[in-house]
Write a structure and sequence with these properties.
This protein has 743 residues and is mainly β. The protein contains 3 helices and 42 strands. The strands form 9 sheets. The chain has a 22-stranded antiparallel beta barrel. A 5-stranded mixed beta sheet has the order 3-8-9-6-7.
């Protein structure tokens, strides 16, 4: 039984009232392989789409999972200004994405549940899957968005079908696939503030009746625009260069077999995250008077380099009564380094800086292999099933360095290696009790093993132990039911479990290797999905309640530049999600999404170090040793409320269409750390975008002017607590122009 707070009940009541008004609003429907319409919609009808949330193509309305989709214009608008994957934050209910490493190390949160760990070996409870291949290492999760058919966000545990490390959910990307029928493609070019340029494009080439190739590319650039007042150098920081390519080769000799091969790479250079020393006014969460985001005070080199590549082979056989799949994946980080001034200032300021910190972290190599074999039935009767086996192997080598801030000479070097292997077997069953009621059940057994060792420790006397070996086996399951109230309205309920494998953090001079035990989750969810008013509107509403046992948490900072892992006895979460979409008029299409996410750490025995007491205002109760008791605190980076809205108004013209598109996202306040302090609480934030353009020749060409963060909202989005009130901020306002063409 789902227990709800009074606020949660009020939210449900308000949301139920909103359902009655849904003719004028929308739901982010979900996507599929290639979003396909069952029927050609009328001019003011929403198309029917299919999703792969259950590893099969299904109508979004029939899937007993809270799932959202970003595709087409909604997705194109977000990436038009050259922004990275963090732009997805808040664009669907209950999704947050942030990073203290800029473009190269995103951290994902669903329903407030995520991980703030910035260790290069960190694991996350949100899994990122690109073209059916899991991107396990956090450095792999930042692959840019281009030539993508859709982004599917699955909320809640997905362990049965997608494996371990998915207790919070899955973010699933699917590239546009090659086609055998004709030569086609697109090109997209934009220019914006700070000499930001973005080009992406693709070409599809049939090579024969059986072979087709699709080549996709991305080029992004932004000039440095932040001055370094310490060196006197103008336009010294916060620029980047990014390019990525993907080549796909399709082989389809007949109707029973096809093979899709994928090779991709990414190369990124530019600034590391720009930190600003003492930018937070003491006793408040305000930015200090006179703060200028275009001026920094760094006395250390600031740069990032990243190179990744990968390949996959997806094979399928369509046989009598069964379909067989083989998915083989290889991902590699060839090199990665991020070097920066962590304190964000100089010995002379701004403000008081207890000690200087210049560090670098990186990866010398990561090699990841994965293999899945899966079979699914094609029965015409009420019973269908799918089953498979999965294998995963990763070998990761990383390092952390410290430097003398006066000479920039290396002072300490710590290199570590982690080997991770896992295998699983899984299955699920769908049974149609009658025409209106469908039952689903799934089961997965996983065995996970990690070996961690210190490879090199230069000028570091580590606290023992310096290595760790952990192994864990776990069974996860889910049970759900979907009731078809009528041809347009479905109700569903779901119980699911999930687990995240144990995590390991390196030893330091004051902390030994720390091991966080496996965490588990039990989640309850119920909802309604409906097409309304002859498919002029669509609505989805869900409520959920979950409990995490032994949640892995990352303690960062305090009074020194160290991290360690801990487990909380329990974490509770509950909330609700609402998505509406529809045509207000034939010319006006709108959408609205919102979520309420309540999280609470439940462990009276858990206390952690805080900032030096003179540097921030801790609001948690303290132990006699001035450690903060975090029992009852929300999870970090977990806003209680999020709201997203879009609107598109079009005016038909002789040979085309004039349009105005706007999108807005709101999140309530957040905590940056496990403990609560006035200075380290992020204020509520609203960001909006605007796009005005003209499309012609049946949508073949489009020209537009756009703006991102058009209100020039400036908010602290994260902080460093161990030294001073160092923070970093959201992306600046941008204006630009864009041209798109299809051929």
């Amino acid at each position: 039984m789902i227990k709800m707070s009074k606020m949660h009940k009020r939210l449900c009541a308000k949301s139920a009232a909103m359902l009655a008004l849904s003719a004028a609003l929308p739901i982010g429907s979900a996507y599929a392989d290639e979003v396909a319409a069952d029927t050609t919609p009328a001019a003011s009808q929403l198309e029917t789409v299919t999703v792969t949330a259950q590893r099969r193509k299904e109508n979004i309305r029939d899937v007993p999972v809270s799932v959202s989709l970003l595709r087409d214009e909604k997705l194109d608008v977000l990436v038009s200004s050259g922004q990275d994957i963090r732009v997805l934050a808040g664009k669907v209910p209950s999704l947050n994405v942030e990073s203290s490493n800029g473009r190269t190390f995103p951290r994902f949160y669903i329903r407030g549940y995520g991980n703030t760990d910035f260790n290069i070996f960190a694991s996350q409870p949100v899994s990122l899957i690109y073209d059916d291949v899991v991107q396990e290492n956090p450095i792999l999760k930042g692959y840019p968005i281009f030539d993508v058919a859709g982004v599917e966000v699955l909320r809640g545990p997905q362990g049965t079908l997608f494996g371990r490390n998915t207790p919070a959910g899955v973010v699933k990307f699917e590239s546009v696939k090659p086609k055998l029928d004709k030569v086609e493609g697109y090109y997209n070019v934009s220019a914006a503030t700070h000499n930001t340029t973005n080009f992406d494009g693709a070409v599809n080439v049939p090579l024969s009746k059986e072979w087709a190739l699709r080549f996709s590319t991305l080029r992004q650039h932004r000039d440095d625009y932040v001055d370094n007042t310490f060196t006197g150098q103008k336009d010294a920081l916060d620029g980047y260069n990014e390019h990525a390519e993907r080549v796909q080769l399709l082989y389809a000799p007949n109707t029973t077999f096809n093979a899709l091969f994928n090779v991709h790479q990414r190369n990124t250079t530019g600034s590391a995250r720009v930190f600003y020393a003492n930018m937070i006014k003491q006793g408040t969460n305000d930015i200090v008077d006179g703060f200028d985001p275009n001026k920094s005070f760094t006395n250390a080199p600031n740069f990032q380099h990243l190179r990744t590549n990968g390949a996959s082979a997806r094979l399928s056989w369509d046989l009598d009564g069964v379909k067989l799949y083989s998915i083989t994946g290889f991902e590699q980080v060839g090199s990665y380094v991020s070097h920066g001034d962590i304190d964000g200032g100089t010995p002379t300021g701004p403000g008081f800086i207890p000690f200087q910190v210049e560090t670098a972290g990186g990866i010398t190599s990561v090699k990841q292999y994965s293999q899945e074999f899966r079979a699914e039935s094609k029965n015409a009767g009420p019973l269908n099933w799918q089953a498979g086996v999965y294998y995963f192997n990763e070998d990761a080598n990383g390092f952390t360095d410290n430097f003398d801030t006066n000479t920039h000479v290396l002072t300490t070097h710590l290199a570590s290696r982690q080997k991770n292997s896992a295998w699983a077997t899984f299955g699920s069953v769908n049974y149609a009790v009658n025409d209106d009621f469908m039952l689903r059940a799934g089961l997965r057994y996983t065995k996970d093993k990690k070996d961690f060792n210190t490879v090199e420790a230069t000028n570091i006397v580590q606290v023992n132990p310096t290595s760790a070996d952990v192994s864990k086996a776990k069974v996860n399951w889910d049970l759900s039911g979907t009731y078809k109230y009528n041809k347009d309205v479905n109700f569903y309920a779901r119980i699911a479990t999930g687990f995240r494998a144990p995590s390991i953090a390196p030893a330091s001079t004051s902390v030994p290797v720390t091991v966080a035990d496996a965490e588990t989750i039990t989640s309850y969810e119920a909802g309604i999905k409906a097409d309304l008013f002859n498919r002029r509107a669509r609505v989805a509403f869900s409520v959920y309640d979950y409990q995490v046992k032994n949640q892995q948490l990352t303690v960062v900072g305090g009074t020194s530049n160290i991290t360690r892992l801990i487990n909380a006895a329990k974490t509770n979460g509950r909330g609700a999600e609402l998505e509406l979409e529809g045509f207000v008029t034939p010319s006006l299409k709108m959408s609205l999404g919102g979520s309420y996410n309540f999280t609470e750490i439940k462990d009276p025995s858990l206390s952690i170090a805080t900032c030096a007491q003179t540097r921030c205002t801790v609001t948690d109760p303290l132990t006699t040793g001035n450690r903060a008791i975090i029992d009852g605190n929300p999870l970090p980076q977990a806003p209680k409320w999020t709201i997203t809205a879009t609107g598109r108004y079009s005016i038909p013209m002789e040979n085309g269409e004039f349009f105005v598109f706007t999108d807005w996202a709101y999140r309530s306040k957040i905590n940056f750390f496990l403990y609560e302090a006035t200075e380290f609480t992020g204020k509520p934030m609203v960001e909006g975008g605007l796009r005005v353009g003209y499309t012609w020749d049946a949508g073949k060409y489009e020209v537009a002017a756009f703006g991102r963060n058009i209100t020039d909202t400036q908010r602290i989005t994260g902080a460093i607590d161990f030294n001073n009130r160092t923070g970093f901020i959201n992306e600046p306002r941008q204006f630009g122009v864009q041209f798109k063409g299809n051929f």
